[in-house]
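User: Can you fold this complex?
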Amino acid sequence: MTLGARTLRSLAQSRRYLSTTRTLPSAQYTDPTKRHDIAIVSTPEDLPPSERHVLDSALRVDQAGEVAANWIYRGQMAVLGRDPNTGPIIQDMWDQEKKHIAVMNQMQVQHQVRPTVLWEVAKVAGFGLGAVTALMGKEAAMACTEAVETVIGEHYDDQLREMEGLSTSHPSIPLLKDVIREFRDDELEHLDTAVENHSQRAPAHALLSTVVGAGCKVAIELCKRF
Amino acid sequence: MASPPLLRAACALVPTHGFTRRALALSALSLPQPHEQPLSDTAINALFGEGDDARRTLADAWLENAREEVRGRFQGRAQVPRVNEVLEARLEANEPVLRHLPEAFALLASPTYPLPPLDPRPGLKHAFKVADDACRIAGEATIGTDWYVRRGTLAAIYAAAELHQLTSPTTAYAFLDTLLAASATAKSSLDDVGTFANYIARSWAGIVRSSGVF
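Assistant: Here's the predicted assembly.
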């Protein structure tokens, strides 16, 4: 694992230790009683165009990433769903991703972001990747999860750094940063789960991780623009 | 984003003078601190572009102005408008300049360079922007591919209604309503077809699975 990912993992663990008693930031989006909160229904109007573009492409990529992650897990479940050991683990991770995509969809509507044109491509590619790696074996499926979650964790971190520069006092932006931090920690938790479930034992682990990681990075760059 | 004061003044003159360089020239006379003379040709060339490019700038600015007008009309309202109302409001914004609009669209479609002979892109972008605004004002919560499908259909409907308005302004609103109702019926029919096809496919999958082939 790269040095960056190891640092991120230790950060995530310390944050999880500190935050066990707090409610999650994404609860503001999933809680039905908070549906009319200004931080959830409106978008900042006073952003200059360059920063608005940063916000737009960040949310577009995040939404596309969550769609792809959902369909990767769906593909893995289609093959490994009946496995008594791995099935429940993948199902748990998939349920968390379902929560992520629900929040991301609400944010797309809230900030009036154009979703990616590659929406259907993300679905098909995700399903294909999940199914193919699951057919290669349980460890390969975990290795795929490990590679994808590493890239996503680093990507969310980069986004948080980009969003430091947003110059508005609208309450939705701090909430957005908190939600992305929470999702980053969730993805790193999935990374831990994958490693604990012997992803490193997968055949041709280095090659698989490199290919999947490179594919994810290409996908991220494409979704930022399209 | 507000257009510069000169362009805004020129847009106010379009109903009387059309999308011409004359409107641009006279815009200087209706500024808060008006000039003595209308703008000279060289000034217009420098500010807005040579020849027909200046008229294209004016046409673009007028379209942007109309979008802002529609947005402003629905800004403070407590009740969220429907897409029908927003598109009707946009058609109403066309009425003062209706006889000059065909020329404006012709200008936008005609090229600055010899090739391609006709450029459909500005017209399509205009229809798409109107549809996008309408969806935002009406607070539509479409996700993913639906976002594009919804805006594509609304853009096509609006473009058809606008073309209808250019030749027959009084019946344009009824035409717009008919088109929107037809698109809603078409969407619900397609959804029904999808549900039924899904049901049939699942039945067949069950039959194949139970036939013992696999």
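The CA atoms of residues 41 and 110 of chain A lie 5 Å apart. The two ends of chain A are 30 Å apart (CA to CA).
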